[in-house]
Amino acid sequence: MIGKLNHVAIAVPDLTASAALYENTLGASVSAPQALPDHGVSVVFVDLGNTKVELLAPLGDHSPIAKFLESNPQGGMHHICFEVDDIVAAADKLKADGARVLGDGNPKTGAHGKPVLFLHPKDFSGTLIELEEA
Ligand code: CO
Q1: Cβ neighbours of residue 57 under 8 Å, at least 6 residues apart?
Q2: Domain ranges within the chain, ordered by starting residue
Q3: 8 CA from centroid of ligand 1 (Å)
Q4: What angle do CA 84, 90, 95 make, to 5 degrees?
Q5: Residue 21 Cα to ligand 1 middle (Å)
Q6: Fewer CB within 10 A of the terminal residue: the chain, N end or C end?
Q7: What CATH number has the domain spanning 2-133?
Q8: Angle at CA 92, nearest 5°, toward 91 and 97?
Q9: Residues identified as active-site
Q10: What is the CA(3)–ligand 1 centre distance, in A?
Q11: What's the whole-model pTM score?
Q12: pLDDT band, very low/low/confident/very high, at 1 (cuts 50, 70, 90)
């Protein structure tokens, strides 16, 4: 069901500093920052050719990554994102198999304007998984 690795997401306390680290120190191609108020984060994407790194910083007072950054003040790997062909079919199969889809269980529009959903880390070896309809 899952296809390509779309991105690995790293939560960071300071998006500008981390974007500069990837751009200048690691010599990567980094997108302009993008605010995603519906998701409570600001993001930049690091283009690696075969996949991307998504740097996420909290946006607003109720960011879903605020707690993660409290436990990991320097930042850390937050989730991985796999592509799927049909996100509704994927959600139905996962729910039938007993996996928990976070939120209200329905896909939301993600950073690329495509439908995404998140799966409970306790159901997937301690890793928060995002699925994105490719
Ligand atoms: Co993501």
Answers
A1: 11, 12, 13, 14, 15, 18, 41, 42, 43, 65
A2: 2-133
A3: 7
A4: 150
A5: 20
A6: N
A7: 3.10.180.10
A8: 95
A9: 130
A10: 15
A11: 0.91
A12: very high
